[in-house]
């Protein structure tokens, strides 16, 4: 079932989205050479607690994870594309990290991901981040009332693949609301004009991921959570929660 959200419900999701954006800002500000992923998770916990919000990831146990999730953020470094666990790993100069976080307010969730580099950045990493952000922006622009779900994936793959990067379609976006993961699935790659009709009140997380090596293959790490590029190349993940309204798409995961 797909549940359309009222303006009031979307407003509450925007509050949750502001908490997610605050987590991103705090984690980005705390990340540096020698800082552990666990420490970043603690920074995120504090932000969520102080906002009196809930952490959507903590204890979440989807089919694609080995255990109930132990943290409040996913920290995916370099060749880890998605769902990297906040371990004792300490960030090194030049690392590329994606920070994924979802929070809820009054039972309404918002989900978002940012990617950035630590210390001296490599030009090719900055380009990968920029193209991923452009890929997400193209997907959001295509989230128009009266359009189709496939318009979003078509727009995203045109940008991401057009730049020569690898993409995968098994982990894409999702409906979001009273639960973090709801119907419908939001593919990263799809055919324009196909799929579900996009209506005002539909709220979705759009979350493309790109692999620098250009290959589509990914592998699951032995920790049962980390989704890694198959060729070990660096990868990036970005995400916003977006409400489709009569006036077009509205991003809910901004400060
Ligand atoms: N934004 C990620 C997704 O929608 C969240 C993963 S949830 C986790 O796939 F808690 F299970 F990691
Ligand atoms: Co998500």
From TrEMBL:
It is an enzyme of class 3 (hydrolase). Its EC number is 3.4.11.18. Its cofactor is Co(2+); Zn(2+); Mn(2+); Fe(2+). A divalent metal cation 2 binds at residues 111, 174, 207, 239. Binds 2 divalent metal cations per subunit. Has a high-affinity and a low affinity metal-binding site. The true nature of the physiological cofactor is under debate. The enzyme is active with cobalt, zinc, manganese or divalent iron ions. Most likely, methionine aminopeptidases function as mononuclear Fe(2+)-metalloproteases under physiological conditions, and the catalytically relevant metal-binding site has been assigned to the histidine-containing high-affinity site. A divalent metal cation 1 binds at residues 100, 111, 239. GO terms for biological process: proteolysis. Signal peptide: none annotated. Residues 11-246 form the Peptidase M24 domain. Substrate binds at residues 83, 181. Keywords: Aminopeptidase, Hydrolase, Metal-binding, Protease. It catalyses: Release of N-terminal amino acids, preferentially methionine, from peptides and arylamides. One of its GO terms (molecular function) is metal ion binding. GO terms for cellular component: cytosol. The keyword Metal-binding applies. Belongs to the peptidase M24A family. Methionine aminopeptidase type 1 subfamily. Removes the N-terminal methionine from nascent proteins. The N-terminal methionine is often cleaved when the second residue in the primary sequence is small and uncharged (Met-Ala-, Cys, Gly, Pro, Ser, Thr, or Val). Requires deformylation of the N(alpha)-formylated initiator methionine before it can be hydrolyzed. Monomer. This is Methionine aminopeptidase. It comes from Nonomuraea terrae. The lineage of its organism: Bacteria, Bacillati, Actinomycetota, Actinomycetes, Streptosporangiales. The gene is map.
